[in-house]
Design goal:
The chain is α/β, with parallel strands linked by helices and about 250 residues long. It contains five helices and 17 strands. Bound molecules: flavin-adenine dinucleotide and FE2/S2 (inorganic) cluster (FES).
Protein backbone atom coordinates (compact mmCIF):
# COMPACT_ATOMS: atom_id res chain seq x y z
CA UNK A 1 0.00 0.00 0.00
CA UNK A 2 1.30 3.48 -0.80
CA UNK A 3 0.26 7.09 -0.27
CA UNK A 4 -2.03 8.43 -2.97
CA UNK A 5 -1.90 12.12 -3.87
CA UNK A 6 -5.32 13.65 -4.56
CA UNK A 7 -6.58 17.22 -5.00
CA UNK A 8 -8.81 18.55 -2.23
CA UNK A 9 -12.39 18.60 -3.51
CA UNK A 10 -13.97 20.29 -0.52
CA UNK A 11 -12.95 22.20 2.60
CA UNK A 12 -15.99 23.20 4.62
CA UNK A 13 -15.52 24.94 7.97
CA UNK A 14 -18.27 23.99 10.44
CA UNK A 15 -17.04 26.28 13.22
CA UNK A 16 -13.69 27.39 14.66
CA UNK A 17 -12.85 23.84 15.81
CA UNK A 18 -14.11 21.54 13.07
CA UNK A 19 -13.99 21.24 9.31
CA UNK A 20 -14.87 18.71 6.61
CA UNK A 21 -12.23 17.68 4.09
CA UNK A 22 -13.38 15.91 0.93
CA UNK A 23 -11.62 14.15 -1.95
CA UNK A 24 -12.77 12.16 -4.97
CA UNK A 25 -11.43 8.71 -5.86
CA UNK A 26 -13.52 5.80 -7.11
CA UNK A 27 -10.88 3.13 -6.44
CA UNK A 28 -10.64 4.12 -2.76
CA UNK A 29 -14.34 4.62 -2.07
CA UNK A 30 -15.16 1.12 -3.34
CA UNK A 31 -12.96 -0.44 -0.62
CA UNK A 32 -14.16 1.56 2.40
CA UNK A 33 -16.10 -0.03 5.26
CA UNK A 34 -17.48 1.91 8.27
CA UNK A 35 -14.79 2.39 10.91
CA UNK A 36 -11.93 2.38 8.41
CA UNK A 37 -9.45 5.23 8.65
CA UNK A 38 -6.79 6.86 6.49
CA UNK A 39 -3.38 8.28 7.31
CA UNK A 40 -3.53 11.82 5.91
CA UNK A 41 -0.73 14.26 5.20
CA UNK A 42 -0.23 17.63 3.56
CA UNK A 43 2.59 16.91 1.06
CA UNK A 44 3.58 20.57 0.91
CA UNK A 45 4.32 20.68 4.64
CA UNK A 46 7.43 19.03 6.14
CA UNK A 47 6.33 19.73 9.73
CA UNK A 48 4.87 17.58 11.17
CA UNK A 49 6.61 14.84 9.20
CA UNK A 50 4.22 12.07 10.15
CA UNK A 51 0.72 11.66 8.73
CA UNK A 52 -2.32 11.77 11.01
CA UNK A 53 -5.15 9.20 11.23
CA UNK A 54 -8.74 10.22 10.37
CA UNK A 55 -11.85 8.03 10.24
CA UNK A 56 -14.04 7.99 7.17
CA UNK A 57 -16.96 10.33 7.83
CA UNK A 58 -19.01 10.03 4.66
CA UNK A 59 -18.83 8.13 1.37
CA UNK A 60 -21.02 9.14 -1.53
CA UNK A 61 -20.29 7.35 -4.84
CA UNK A 62 -16.69 8.35 -5.62
CA UNK A 63 -16.50 11.08 -2.94
CA UNK A 64 -14.99 10.56 0.48
CA UNK A 65 -15.07 12.95 3.46
CA UNK A 66 -13.30 13.35 6.79
CA UNK A 67 -14.61 15.36 9.74
CA UNK A 68 -11.57 16.89 11.42
CA UNK A 69 -11.11 18.59 14.76
CA UNK A 70 -8.33 21.17 14.90
CA UNK A 71 -6.05 19.93 17.69
CA UNK A 72 -2.45 20.80 16.81
CA UNK A 73 -0.11 21.54 13.94
CA UNK A 74 -1.19 18.91 11.36
CA UNK A 75 -4.91 19.48 11.70
CA UNK A 76 -4.40 23.28 11.68
CA UNK A 77 -2.38 23.04 8.46
CA UNK A 78 -4.97 20.78 6.82
CA UNK A 79 -7.67 23.30 7.77
CA UNK A 80 -5.83 25.98 5.77
CA UNK A 81 -5.82 23.95 2.53
CA UNK A 82 -7.89 25.17 -0.40
CA UNK A 83 -9.72 23.17 -3.04
CA UNK A 84 -7.37 21.94 -5.77
CA UNK A 85 -4.34 21.68 -3.45
CA UNK A 86 -3.01 18.15 -2.99
CA UNK A 87 -3.23 15.92 0.06
CA UNK A 88 -1.72 12.45 0.52
CA UNK A 89 -3.80 9.54 1.75
CA UNK A 90 -2.86 6.03 2.86
CA UNK A 91 -5.73 3.61 3.29
CA UNK A 92 -8.35 2.47 3.90
CA UNK A 93 -6.73 1.13 7.08
CA UNK A 94 -7.91 -0.89 10.08
CA UNK A 95 -10.62 -3.48 10.54
CA UNK A 96 -13.84 -1.42 10.69
CA UNK A 97 -17.06 -2.13 12.61
CA UNK A 98 -18.58 -5.62 12.18
CA UNK A 99 -22.01 -5.04 10.60
CA UNK A 100 -25.30 -6.71 11.54
CA UNK A 101 -28.67 -6.82 9.81
CA UNK A 102 -32.27 -6.70 10.99
CA UNK A 103 -31.30 -5.62 14.54
CA UNK A 104 -32.07 -2.77 16.94
CA UNK A 105 -28.84 -0.85 17.07
CA UNK A 106 -27.61 2.01 19.22
CA UNK A 107 -24.81 4.35 18.15
CA UNK A 108 -23.13 6.47 20.82
CA UNK A 109 -20.47 9.07 20.09
CA UNK A 110 -18.68 11.78 22.01
CA UNK A 111 -16.95 14.83 20.55
CA UNK A 112 -14.96 14.04 17.41
CA UNK A 113 -15.96 10.40 17.99
CA UNK A 114 -18.93 11.44 15.87
CA UNK A 115 -16.68 11.17 12.77
CA UNK A 116 -17.09 7.46 11.85
CA UNK A 117 -20.80 7.34 12.78
CA UNK A 118 -22.75 8.82 9.83
CA UNK A 119 -21.20 6.30 7.39
CA UNK A 120 -21.80 3.46 9.87
CA UNK A 121 -25.39 4.63 10.39
CA UNK A 122 -25.95 4.72 6.62
CA UNK A 123 -24.63 1.15 6.13
CA UNK A 124 -26.59 -0.19 9.12
CA UNK A 125 -29.83 1.33 7.85
CA UNK A 126 -29.12 -0.06 4.38
CA UNK A 127 -28.82 -3.53 5.99
CA UNK A 128 -32.31 -3.22 7.52
CA UNK A 129 -31.35 -2.29 11.09
CA UNK A 130 -33.33 0.10 13.28
CA UNK A 131 -30.76 2.68 14.37
CA UNK A 132 -30.91 5.00 17.39
CA UNK A 133 -28.11 7.55 17.60
CA UNK A 134 -26.95 9.45 20.73
CA UNK A 135 -24.19 12.04 20.53
CA UNK A 136 -22.56 14.05 23.30
CA UNK A 137 -20.45 17.18 23.19
CA UNK A 138 -19.13 19.73 25.64
CA UNK A 139 -21.25 22.46 24.06
CA UNK A 140 -23.25 23.30 20.92
CA UNK A 141 -19.88 23.73 19.19
CA UNK A 142 -19.46 19.94 19.31
CA UNK A 143 -22.83 19.14 17.73
CA UNK A 144 -22.84 18.24 14.04
CA UNK A 145 -26.46 17.61 13.09
CA UNK A 146 -29.88 17.81 14.71
CA UNK A 147 -31.22 14.49 13.42
CA UNK A 148 -29.69 12.57 16.36
CA UNK A 149 -30.28 12.74 20.15
CA UNK A 150 -27.73 15.38 21.09
CA UNK A 151 -26.55 15.94 24.67
CA UNK A 152 -24.24 18.73 25.80
CA UNK A 153 -22.39 19.04 29.10
CA UNK A 154 -23.32 22.74 29.37
CA UNK A 155 -26.87 22.40 28.03
CA UNK A 156 -26.30 24.72 25.05
CA UNK A 157 -27.85 22.15 22.69
CA UNK A 158 -30.18 19.17 23.19
CA UNK A 159 -30.31 17.32 26.51
CA UNK A 160 -28.17 18.68 29.35
CA UNK A 161 -25.58 16.27 30.73
CA UNK A 162 -23.36 13.40 29.66
CA UNK A 163 -24.44 11.25 26.73
CA UNK A 164 -23.90 8.15 28.90
CA UNK A 165 -26.75 9.24 31.26
CA UNK A 166 -29.21 9.37 28.37
CA UNK A 167 -27.96 6.14 26.80
CA UNK A 168 -28.44 4.39 30.16
CA UNK A 169 -32.04 5.63 30.44
CA UNK A 170 -32.65 4.52 26.85
CA UNK A 171 -31.19 1.04 27.45
CA UNK A 172 -33.47 0.67 30.48
CA UNK A 173 -36.57 1.54 28.47
CA UNK A 174 -35.90 -0.09 25.09
CA UNK A 175 -34.55 -3.40 23.85
CA UNK A 176 -31.25 -2.91 21.99
CA UNK A 177 -29.33 -5.78 20.32
CA UNK A 178 -25.95 -4.16 19.79
CA UNK A 179 -24.10 -0.92 20.56
CA UNK A 180 -21.34 0.82 18.56
CA UNK A 181 -19.34 3.60 20.21
CA UNK A 182 -16.60 6.10 19.46
CA UNK A 183 -15.45 8.88 21.73
CA UNK A 184 -13.32 9.61 24.80
CA UNK A 185 -12.09 6.49 26.59
CA UNK A 186 -13.95 7.14 29.90
CA UNK A 187 -17.18 7.39 27.91
CA UNK A 188 -16.54 4.11 26.06
CA UNK A 189 -15.52 2.40 29.30
CA UNK A 190 -18.78 3.50 30.98
CA UNK A 191 -20.81 2.32 27.99
CA UNK A 192 -19.00 -1.04 28.03
CA UNK A 193 -19.84 -1.53 31.74
CA UNK A 194 -23.50 -0.62 31.06
CA UNK A 195 -23.68 -3.05 28.15
CA UNK A 196 -21.95 -5.87 30.06
CA UNK A 197 -24.54 -5.52 32.87
CA UNK A 198 -27.32 -5.92 30.31
CA UNK A 199 -25.63 -8.59 28.15
CA UNK A 200 -25.52 -6.30 25.13
CA UNK A 201 -22.51 -6.63 22.79
CA UNK A 202 -20.62 -3.37 22.25
CA UNK A 203 -17.95 -2.47 19.69
CA UNK A 204 -15.71 0.51 20.40
CA UNK A 205 -13.36 2.43 18.11
CA UNK A 206 -10.15 3.12 20.03
CA UNK A 207 -7.75 6.03 19.58
CA UNK A 208 -3.98 6.00 19.94
CA UNK A 209 -1.30 8.35 18.65
CA UNK A 210 -0.06 6.63 15.48
CA UNK A 211 3.25 6.87 13.67
CA UNK A 212 3.10 4.36 10.79
CA UNK A 213 -0.59 3.32 10.81
CA UNK A 214 0.27 -0.05 9.24
CA UNK A 215 1.54 -2.23 12.07
CA UNK A 216 5.27 -1.54 11.70
CA UNK A 217 6.19 0.69 14.67
CA UNK A 218 4.20 -0.83 17.60
CA UNK A 219 3.48 2.72 18.78
CA UNK A 220 -0.27 2.24 19.04
CA UNK A 221 -0.69 -0.85 21.23
CA UNK A 222 -3.48 -1.41 23.74
CA UNK A 223 -4.12 -4.22 26.22
CA UNK A 224 -6.75 -6.79 25.27
CA UNK A 225 -8.08 -9.74 27.30
CA UNK A 226 -7.66 -12.93 25.29
CA UNK A 227 -8.14 -16.52 26.58
CA UNK A 228 -7.64 -15.64 30.27
CA UNK A 229 -4.51 -13.62 29.55
CA UNK A 230 -3.71 -10.06 28.55
CA UNK A 231 -2.11 -9.43 25.15
CA UNK A 232 -1.01 -6.29 23.33
CA UNK A 233 -2.86 -5.47 20.09
CA UNK A 234 -2.15 -2.75 17.57
CA UNK A 235 -4.93 -0.19 17.21
CA UNK A 236 -3.94 0.49 13.57
CA UNK A 237 -3.91 -3.13 12.37
CA UNK A 238 -5.98 -5.16 14.84
CA UNK A 239 -8.37 -2.23 15.46
CA UNK A 240 -9.29 0.55 15.71
CA UNK A 241 -12.54 -1.33 16.45
CA UNK A 242 -12.46 -3.81 19.34
CA UNK A 243 -15.06 -5.77 21.27
CA UNK A 244 -15.62 -3.51 24.31
CA UNK A 245 -15.64 -6.28 26.92
CA UNK A 246 -12.16 -7.41 25.79
CA UNK A 247 -10.50 -4.00 26.21
CA UNK A 248 -8.39 -3.43 29.35
CA UNK A 249 -9.47 0.13 30.06
CA UNK A 250 -6.72 2.45 31.30
CA UNK A 251 -9.02 5.43 31.77
C1 LIG B 1 -8.03 5.50 14.30
C2 LIG B 1 -8.14 6.99 14.54
C3 LIG B 1 -9.11 7.71 13.89
C4 LIG B 1 -9.20 9.09 14.10
N1 LIG B 1 -10.19 9.77 13.45
C5 LIG B 1 -10.25 11.10 13.59
C6 LIG B 1 -11.24 11.83 12.87
O1 LIG B 1 -12.04 11.29 12.10
N2 LIG B 1 -11.24 13.18 13.02
C7 LIG B 1 -10.36 13.82 13.85
O2 LIG B 1 -10.41 15.05 13.93
N3 LIG B 1 -9.45 13.15 14.55
C8 LIG B 1 -9.36 11.80 14.43
N4 LIG B 1 -8.39 11.13 15.12
C9 LIG B 1 -7.47 11.89 16.00
C10 LIG B 1 -6.45 12.62 15.15
O3 LIG B 1 -5.62 11.69 14.48
C11 LIG B 1 -5.59 13.56 16.03
O4 LIG B 1 -6.41 14.54 16.58
C12 LIG B 1 -4.53 14.22 15.19
O5 LIG B 1 -3.52 13.27 14.98
C13 LIG B 1 -3.96 15.46 15.84
O6 LIG B 1 -2.89 15.90 15.02
P1 LIG B 1 -2.26 17.35 15.19
O7 LIG B 1 -0.92 17.37 14.54
O8 LIG B 1 -3.24 18.37 14.78
O9 LIG B 1 -2.09 17.48 16.72
P2 LIG B 1 -0.83 16.99 17.55
O10 LIG B 1 0.15 18.12 17.61
O11 LIG B 1 -0.36 15.66 17.07
O12 LIG B 1 -1.56 16.79 18.91
C14 LIG B 1 -1.66 17.80 19.88
C15 LIG B 1 -1.81 17.09 21.20
O13 LIG B 1 -3.07 16.38 21.22
C16 LIG B 1 -2.89 15.12 21.83
N5 LIG B 1 -3.27 14.07 20.89
C17 LIG B 1 -3.17 14.10 19.54
N6 LIG B 1 -3.63 12.97 18.99
C18 LIG B 1 -4.03 12.20 20.01
C19 LIG B 1 -4.58 10.90 20.08
N7 LIG B 1 -4.85 10.17 18.99
N8 LIG B 1 -4.84 10.42 21.31
C20 LIG B 1 -4.57 11.14 22.42
N9 LIG B 1 -4.06 12.38 22.41
C21 LIG B 1 -3.78 12.90 21.22
C22 LIG B 1 -1.48 15.04 22.28
O14 LIG B 1 -1.42 15.45 23.64
C23 LIG B 1 -0.75 16.01 21.43
O15 LIG B 1 0.39 16.52 22.03
C24 LIG B 1 -8.28 9.75 14.96
C25 LIG B 1 -7.29 9.02 15.62
C26 LIG B 1 -7.22 7.64 15.42
C27 LIG B 1 -6.17 6.88 16.12
S1 LIG C 1 0.87 3.03 14.31
FE1 LIG C 1 2.65 1.86 13.89
S2 LIG C 1 2.08 -0.10 14.60
FE2 LIG C 1 0.26 1.02 14.79
Amino acid sequence: MHFKKLPVLKIEHINKDYFVLGVRDKELTQKIKPGHFFQVKDPASRIPLLPRPFSVYKVDNDELEFLVKIIGEATMKLSHLSTGQDIQLLGPLGNGFPLVSGKKVLLASGGIGFAPMPFLEHKLKEAGNEVHFYHGGRSSNDVFCDSVENCTDDGTFGHTGFVTEYVEKYLDSTHIDIVYACGPEPMMKTLTIMCSKRDIPIYVSMERVMACGVGACCGCVIKIKENDSIVYKKVCNDGPVFYGAEVVWDA
